[in-house]
Design brief:
With about 250 residues, this protein is mostly helical. The chain contains nine helices and two strands; from the N terminus they run αααααββαααα. A two-stranded antiparallel sheet has the order 1-2. A hairpin with a 3-residue loop joins strand 1 and strand 2. The longest helix is centred in the first third of the chain and has 32 residues. The two termini are about 40 Å apart.
Length: about 250
Amino acid sequence: MGIFTTLIIQPILNFLVWLYNVIPGNDLGIAIILLTVVFKLILYPLTMAQIRQQRALQNLQPKIDEIRHRLKDQKDAQAKELMELYKREKVNPASSCLPLLIQLPIFIGLYRALVDGVSSKLALLYPFISNPGTIHPMMFGIVDLSKPSYVLAVLAGAVQFWQSWQIMRKPSPATPPPQEVAGKPGAKDEGMAAAMNKQMMYLMPLVTVFIGVSLPGGLTLYWLVMSLLTVAQQAIFLRRPVPPAAEAKLS
């Protein structure tokens, strides 16, 4: 048995089977939802750091655009000044990838757990986990989570768009742009990075739907619930009042 199986697949499978056993009615969908909530609580600090960084990077966009406009013909100087800006404001543009990278092995582990569990290949169960014999893949007696679900895939894509739109919304009109860039030609929110972010906001939901219709519904349900929880987490964070002068310094 490999390290990935021992450290990732086996614990996820056992936790999922345990939830399935203790839930009244043995509903696999509810078990996956509860499992997702637990994983979200574990990842909460990383996700919160990601949200802070995304918001801070968005608020820095006018400064970033001004530097790119002013040094558009001096790539080395532009890169150096941008790195100094990120360092000064304590912003890491690559930080948003970390929660996704951590979720990838969980996603793969859950996929294997679903395949093994639904097919009753439960040889990886710990001695203290009761073997249910057969795991019924139905959620609420309606959705077969062992097969692709177009409804869940579309819902997951819609929530993915909502999640991106929520964090990408422009700051309040009451928040003025930084004084050092206000009025300059490069101080706008339509720079190259902003345009790419907007493209990703529309592209990622389509990718989510495309992948979702080819995977077992249980995986799509996991992604849907995880995205909904992230939307709720972002909503709580974004409701916090932030002084305009300090908004660009969030980290």
